[in-house]
From TrEMBL:
This is Transport permease protein. InterPro entries: ABC2_TM (IPR013525), ABC2_TM_bact-type (IPR047817), ABC_2_transport (IPR000412), Nod_factor_ABC_transporter (IPR051784). It comes from Thermosporothrix hazakensis. Residues 35-256 form the ABC transmembrane type-2 domain. PROSITE patterns: ABC_TM2.
């Protein structure tokens, strides 16, 4: 009995160590790719500055950053998880990097988990940057529930990182590049982050209501509002998307 427990513990420790080592590797690779830093950090920050400074959303009462910041955070999560990670992983597969990883002890699930954790680490840095810009330049005051906000950041990161990995693991690199950018444009335009849903045409608003980008944006808006209401319906939508996309990513992911 004792030997069985020891073997199980060693296996668990080995899996955890593999994931942590791969996470470190993913973070180092991301830091070395300048375009990743551009997408992950600079573009969402510039988008927040542009939208807030020009007040492009008419009819908002009070500080426009109260509405814009949660949406820009959602856009940043989509850009980092789906676009950045998806395209980078697709080309790792194209150039045979994933094939070499496939011969290592790490499993598909372990690799996907490591990539999601690495994106989550980057997202925490990005959220801190966006909040810092909002506070320093637009006098935004932190409000709402920090725990709820972090919960939805984690769920959103998992959903969109899994979506990027699902495309990268099943499609050619060129298709992943085109598909990720096209989906990002759709989520940007009708996800409710910059243009309120009540200003969209009714058919687009109806489609937007079932998208993970809209659920993430609305959940963050609720969590970061002064009342900090609990967005149960958005939470359920996000959980469903996370479970479905993560399952698809794990089942369809191919090393080569």
């Amino acid at each position: 009995m004792a030997s069985t427990l020891t073997t199980t513990d060693n296996r668990a420790a080995s899996f955890v160590q593999q994931v942590l080592t791969q996470t470190k590797y993913e973070l180092l690779l991301t830091a070395r790719r300048g375009e990743n830093i551009l997408v992950t950090l600079i573009i969402p920050a510039l988008l927040l500055i542009f939208a807030a400074s020009l007040n492009i959303v008419p009819g908002l009462k009070g500080n426009p950053v109260d509405f814009l910041l949660p949406g820009i955070i959602a856009i940043a999560i989509i850009a980092a998880g789906m676009v950045n990670l998806g395209i980078a992983t697709a080309y790792e597969r194209y150039y045979g990097v994933l094939k070499r990883l496939g011969s290592s002890p790490i499993s598909r699930g372990g690799l996907i988990l490591a990539k999601i954790i690495s994106i989550l680490v980057l997202e925490l840095v990005q959220v801190a940057l966006l909040v810092g810009i909002a506070v320093l330049f637009y006098h935004w005051q932190p409000q709402g529930s920090l725990l709820l906000t972090l919960l939805f950041v984690a769920l959103g990161t998992t959903a969109f990182a899994a979506l990027g990995l699902a495309m990268a693991g099943a499609l050619r690199a060129e298709f992943t590049l085109a598909g990720a950018n096209a989906l990002f444009l759709v989520f940007l335009l009708i996800g409710g982050g910059i243009v309120p849903l009540d200003r969209l045409p009714a058919p687009l608003a109806a489609i937007s209501g079932i998208l993970p980008s809209t659920a993430l944006t609305q959940a963050l808006q609720a969590a970061m509002s002064p009342s900090a209401t609990f967005p149960l319906s958005q939470l359920l939508v996000l959980i469903v998307w996370v479970l479905v996309i993560l399952f698809v990513a794990i089942k369809t992911f191919k090393w080569e």
